[in-house]
Write a structure and sequence with these properties.
By secondary structure, this protein is mainly alpha-helical. Helices cover about 40% and strands about 5% of the residues. A two-stranded parallel ribbon has the order 1-2.
Length: about 150
């Protein structure tokens, strides 16, 4: 199999990322995580717009496109509605820090393919919404400034 173009670039980025991530041994990273004990997990994306409700049913979660069988072209239009005006990364970081959290984990790109960052490989991202803000850059900046990983 011959690999080229964007796939090769992606493999290179993953390799570089893994190289950086493995600067510490897995045991050392786990030791840090065990000590930290408490962090914030944010699960957020386009699936928040219908809020689990579709066609009279309200039992759908973040897999709503699949479970409600929403056609892709119809689901993708949620990006036209993605404008979380009340989002405040600094406030999230402040609250997390005050609660004693040590880190944040976020679904930056979910199974539906929508990215909460300015993606170089797809236009199905936060920059194609009316909001046009790189959520991940704001979160990284705010949480880093607040001393959270």
């Amino acid at each position: 199999m011959r690999i080229r173009g964007p796939t090769l670039l992606l493999i290179g980025v993953i390799s570089i990322s893994l190289g950086c991530a493995t600067a510490q041994t897995p045991e050392a990273r786990l030791d840090w995580w065990r000590e930290a004990r408490f962090g914030l997990f944010v699960h957020w994306g386009l699936y928040a717009i219908p809020a689990g409700r579709w066609d009279g049913a309200d039992h759908h979660g973040e897999w709503i496109r699949t479970t409600a069988e929403i056609p892709r072209d119809q689901y993708d239009r949620f990006s036209d509605e993605f404008e979380p005006l009340a989002f405040d990364a600094e406030e999230w970081a402040r609250l997390a820090s005050e609660a004693g959290m040590q880190y944040v984990v976020i679904t930056s790109k979910h199974h539906d393919g929508f990215a909460l960052f300015d993606s170089a490989v797809s236009d199905f991202d936060v920059m194609a919404t009316p909001w046009k803000k790189d959520v991940m850059a704001e979160i990284a900046r705010a949480f880093g400034a607040g001393g959270l990983r």
